[in-house]
Design brief:
By secondary structure, the chain is of the alpha+beta class. The chain is built from 15 helices and 20 strands.
Length: about 425
């Protein structure tokens, strides 16, 4: 996975905030190359770290307050941290839907762990990265909480500018690294890695020294970096972010928090890792689309779009905005979609409560208009069409496609061109 443009230090550090960007075209830029990346939970990432002898806290995952209590008893310590497991940052400053503050809490006894877990489990946590909708917490990480002497930042990622993997680090860890990169770019350390030779020991030691490690901690930090890079390669990761990466009061170098992204194209050889996928943390519409290899991203509008081709999809959304409407999604069925894929795409649009009208815009080059038309009719009959549907077809087998729509008995508005289609779609919502 490579970024689309030469990134600034801030953009290199994380892609987590992309989903929250507005307007919609900023959110869609990465999807033009259709790079879906698997996210996993922190506790799952720590399991991977332990497999590579990378220092991290002891502990595990709990699905209930009783399980959290049992984990705390097993740890047998009085410094425990409980962390909500969601695919978003800002948990510590988050707020639950019932007003309970914080997705990260400290406890000193198993009983306290049970009490806090009961307040953190089974409801939505809202953070600056989840947006107002929040994310449902169904798992907690119960971990030891050693005293942290120093906090650094460390990440491995693929970077287009350097044509391969890069080690990114900063002595200013434990904070919002994107803000550090924006306000103090000189605080960001960038170490390119030769994809053939790997992370050189001398480079790892140099970065450790730049981070401020001293004495034996320098070699230990370099050891951790080398093991992290091996994990990065072996797992087909696109990013491993450790924040904080630091030192305990006992002088041990630890990865205190870990965020992973993996290239979906590697799912065939990373089956175990991809079993970590938690679909409850994803947009249900995007999960459904991925099962049928549809390119879908949900947006905030109310006009559902189904188009073939990313460029045509972007143009369609521009025209909808031009005539006063708001697109509800980016949905590209591709140039060779089957009738089944078209049907499933239509189901996703019809099943979205925010969608008040659907605009289908198809240029039949590789994709045939009669295939699209058959899929539309089949889907409309299966789900029961309850909202206005506007269809613009042009290209291969367009007359056959229009005939299928006309003879379907379904109320469909056919448009002569894209402007006409957008006007009809916007007007249909205003009429309702």
């Amino acid at each position: 996975f490579f970024e689309l443009a030469a990134p600034s230090p801030a953009s290199m550090l994380s892609t987590r905030a992309l989903r929250a960007l507005r307007p919609w075209h900023k959110r869609l830029a990465p999807s033009l190359v259709q790079a879906r990346n698997l996210n996993i939970h922190e506790y799952q990432g720590k399991e991977l770290l332990r497999e590579y002898n990378i220092n991290t806290q002891k502990g595990g995952a709990a699905k209930s307050a009783d399980e959290a209590h049992a984990l705390a008893e097993k740890l047998g310590i009085d410094n425990i941290i409980i962390k909500a497991q969601i695919h978003a940052g800002g948990r510590g400053k988050g707020t639950y839907e019932d007003g309970f503050k914080g997705g990260v809490h400290f406890a000193s006894t198993p009983a306290e762990v049970r009490d806090l877990s009961g307040k953190m489990m089974g409801k939505k946590l809202v953070t600056h990265q989840t947006g107002p909708a929040g994310a449902f917490v169904n798992t907690l990480a119960v971990l030891e909480a050693p005293e942290i002497k120093s906090e650094k930042y460390l990440a491995l990622l693929m970077d287009r500018t350097h044509h391969g993997p890069v080690l990114v680090a900063s002595a200013k860890g434990g904070v919002d690294i994107e803000e550090v990169a924006a306000t103090e770019p000189e605080a960001i350390i960038t170490q390119p890695i030769d994809i053939v030779e790997g992370l050189a020991r001398a480079d790892a030691v140099h970065v450790a020294q730049q981070l401020g490690f001293e004495g034996t901690a320098v070699d230990e930090a370099a050891d951790q970096m080398e093991r992290l890079y091996q994990l990065f390669l072996d797992s087909d990761a696109t990013q491993i972010e450790i924040n904080p990466f630091g030192e305990t009061d006992k002088g041990e170098v630890y990865c205190f928090d870990a965020k992973f992204n993996f290239d979906d194209n590697a799912s065939f050889r990373q089956e175990r890792i991809f079993q970590y996928r938690d679909e409850t943390q994803e947009d249900a519409r995007e999960v459904a689309a991925s099962k049928y290899n549809l390119n879908y991203i949900g947006l905030d509008g109310n006009i559902g779009c189904m188009v073939n081709g990313a460029g045509l999809a972007m143009g369609t959304m521009d025209i909808i905005k031009l005539y006063g409407g708001d697109p509800a999604n980016f949905l590209d069925v591709g140039g060779s979609a089957s009738e089944e894929q078209v049907t499933e795409a239509f189901k996703i649009l019809q099943g979205d409560a925010h969608v008040k009208a659907i605009l289908v815009n198809i240029f039949g080059g590789i994709m045939r208009c009669d295939t699209i038309a058959s899929g539309i009719v089949s889907a409309a009959r299966q789900v029961g069409l309850t909202i206005p549907l506007v269809v613009r077809l042009e290209g291969t087998n367009v007359e056959e496609g229009r005939k299928i729509l006309q003879e379907s008995g379904i109320k469909i508005v056919t448009a002569s061109d894209l402007d006409d289609a957008a006007k009809h779609a916007v007007a249909s919502i205003s009429a309702n």
